[in-house]
């Protein structure tokens, strides 16, 4: 089935789950509809950019289209005028059979047009779209109005579906399918004792300050090293904090790295750290891909009881969990691992979890099956 993958920004190196769909869904029979094109297209797919320059007539239509969309559909982001016709022509010319909108916010953009063209529309909930966005009454209204327009929806975790349902946003054809990981490429390598890794944007919901302070408390008198991979607004503060805490020689900040280099770190890392918290604006994780990749590589994961993370990390079995913001508890868990001579059982359980739950070939096949069966019955 020819699938149009709708996403906000393209190409984004860190959005491995979206890029995997673009590259492999239904044998790679895909095209891309994006809000912004970032100038790089390594996947070589037919591409339509929604936010191109407006024609003179569309500039005139814009305020009326925005007002009408907000009134009738709860969103001012619907394609209109010349842009809508061009997008419809792209979908027809590409022979699109189904639309998969990555993030619920992108489904808002595509659902009405898909219905008008008799193209089934599915969405994939991943985190911010089903947490932070629910702080807006208008967004909740728009999601509720969108539900009858969707053929089905997927979520990376049950937590997000429950979060949506608590706001009256439900669909009869809803399924939990984690983003998953290529468990053949992400597999345990020889582990460096005392090696710790944290991967992700240095932003509030990742709480890198807590991770750093907890590591400093536990590791200052122990043989351990922490590598942070990622950039973001808190990176410089964390570099300064590491020096202040006296652990600058035990912490490395790499900045953002290509996915293959992240994988190389995971292969040989013993312990993965992710102290995810709910940000002040309500933003949460879904089920972090980085944790799924870490488990596949046999990394013992120390994380928080946050969003879908407990659906992957079982405390005392394949990793350790603490409550959000529990810095002392996080430090104690780091010390516990460092003081455990034989960590092999936790590492083996981590790998077994990934094999059982997060094989992306299995997940991709399930998404395809659900889409096929749904389309066949409509």
Automatic annotation (TrEMBL):
Leader sequence residues: none
InterPro entries per UniProt: Glyco_trans_1, Glyco_trans_4-like_N
GO molecular function, one term: glycosyltransferase activity
Domain Glycosyltransferase subfamily 4-like N-terminal intervals: 81-185
Alphabetical keyword list: Glycosyltransferase, Transferase
The UniProt record lists the keyword Metal-binding: no
Keyword Glycosyltransferase: yes
Stretches assigned to the Glycosyl transferase family domain: 190-351
Coiled coil regions, renumbered to chain: none
Gene3D superfamilies (UniProt xref): Glycogen Phosphorylase B (3.40.50.2000)
Taxonomy, superkingdom: Bacteria
Alphabetical list of PANTHER family matching this protein: COLANIC ACID BIOSYNTHESIS GLYCOSYLTRANSFERASE WCAL-RELATED (PTHR12526:SF640), GLYCOSYLTRANSFERASE (PTHR12526)
Protein family: Belongs to the glycosyltransferase group 1 family. Glycosyltransferase 4 subfamily.
UniProt name for this protein: Glycosyltransferase involved in cell wall bisynthesis
Organism: Antarctobacter heliothermus
């Amino acid at each position: 089935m020819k699938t149009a993958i709708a996403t906000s920004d393209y190409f984004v190196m860190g959005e491995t789950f979206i890029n995997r769909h673009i590259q492999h869904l239904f044998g790679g029979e895909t095209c891309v509809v994006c809000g912004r094109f970032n100038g790089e297209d390594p996947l070589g797919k037919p591409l339509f950019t929604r936010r191109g320059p407006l024609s003179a007539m569309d500039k005139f239509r814009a305020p009326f289209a925005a007002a009408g969309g907000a009134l009738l559909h709860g969103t001012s982001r619907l394609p209109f005028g010349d842009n809508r016709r061009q997008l419809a022509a792209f979908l027809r010319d590409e022979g699109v059979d189904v639309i998969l909108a990555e993030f619920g916010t992108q489904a808002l953009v595509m659902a009405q047009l898909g219905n008008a063209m008799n193209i089934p529309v599915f969405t994939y909930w991943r985190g911010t779209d089903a947490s932070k966005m629910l702080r807006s009454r208008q967004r909740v209204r728009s999601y509720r109005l969108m539900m009858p327009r969707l053929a089905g929806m997927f979520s990376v975790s049950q937590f997000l579906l429950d979060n949506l349902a608590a706001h009256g946003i439900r669909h009869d054809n809803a399924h939990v399918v984690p983003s998953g990981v290529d468990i053949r490429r992400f597999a345990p390598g020889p582990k460096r004792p005392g090696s710790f890794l944290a991967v992700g944007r240095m932003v509030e919901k990742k709480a890198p300050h807590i991770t750093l302070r907890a590591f400093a408390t536990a590791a200052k008198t122990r043989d351990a090293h922490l590598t942070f991979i990622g950039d973001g607004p808190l990176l410089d503060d964390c570099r300064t904090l590491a020096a202040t805490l006296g652990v600058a020689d035990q912490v490395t900040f790499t900045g953002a790295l290509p996915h293959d280099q992240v994988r190389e770190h995971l292969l040989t890392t013993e312990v993965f750290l992710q102290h995810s918290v709910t940000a002040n604006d309500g933003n949460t994780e879904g089920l972090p891909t980085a944790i799924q990749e870490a488990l596949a590589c046999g990394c013992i994961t120390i994380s928080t009881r946050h969003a879908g993370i407990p659906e992957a990390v079982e405390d005392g079995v394949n990793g350790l969990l603490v409550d959000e913001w529990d810095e002392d508890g996080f430090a104690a868990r780091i010390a516990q691992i460092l003081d455990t001579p034989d960590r092999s059982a936790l590492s083996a359980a981590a790998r077994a979890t990934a094999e059982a739950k997060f094989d992306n070939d299995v997940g991709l096949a399930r998404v395809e099956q659900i889409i096929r069966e749904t389309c066949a019955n409509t």
